[in-house]
Amino acid sequence: MPNLLDLMTPEDRKTVEGWAVDRLNPQHKPDIPPYFYLCAQLGYYYGWQAVVDFKRNYHSGIDSKGNLTRLAFVLEEAVALVKAAEKLHYRLNIDSGKINAATTLSTNDKSYAKHNAEYVNKLQDEAYK
Q1: Contact present, 116 and 101 (Cβ < 8 Å)
Q2: No. of helices (H) and no. of strands (E), the chain
Q3: Of 4, 55, 74, 79, which has fewest CB within 10 angstroms of its CB?
Q4: What is the DSSP letter of 30?
């Protein structure tokens, strides 16, 4: 069974590999090493088992014959999974913001509705990067 990178087109794979390089060499250095930050994001979005799999560099899978196998879990795959989870998170925030804006608009409070619309637009810009 192939890993996520094997299923990508060469262009997409280069993009994901670039994300991994950017993630490990951030412009603003966090207080913690980027590797640990990435592990924390994996844990937040996918649970503790994702952190364990990432630390041991493989995850379990089932091959075509139904046998349990070890599949490589590489940095680029981890970054791609985190990026996908972030996009989903932003989409859910946008949906929540739209609902919030609709309910706020129904109360005719124009200043709050304007603030909410700006927030939703900002989230949409982030989600579609």
Answers
A1: yes
A2: 5, 2
A3: 55
A4: P
Nearest to 45 by CA among 76, 89, 4: 89
Rounded Cα–Cα distance for residues 61 and 34 (Å): 27
Q: Which helix (H) or strand (E) holds 66?
A: none
35-77 residue pLDDT tens = 888 888 999 999 998 888 888 888 777 878 888 888 888 888 8
Determine what percent of the chain is predicted with pLDDT higher than 90: 6
Cα gap 70→87, rounded to integer Å:
28
Contact 91, 58 (CB under 8 A): no
Q: Tens digits of per-residue pLDDT, 84-129? A: 999 998 888 888 887 777 776 666 666 666 776 777 777 777 766 6
The CA dihedral of 28, 31, 35, 39, to the nearest 10 degrees, is: -120
For 9, list phi and psi in degrees, rounded to 5: -70, 160
Residue 34 has pLDDT above 90, yes or no: no
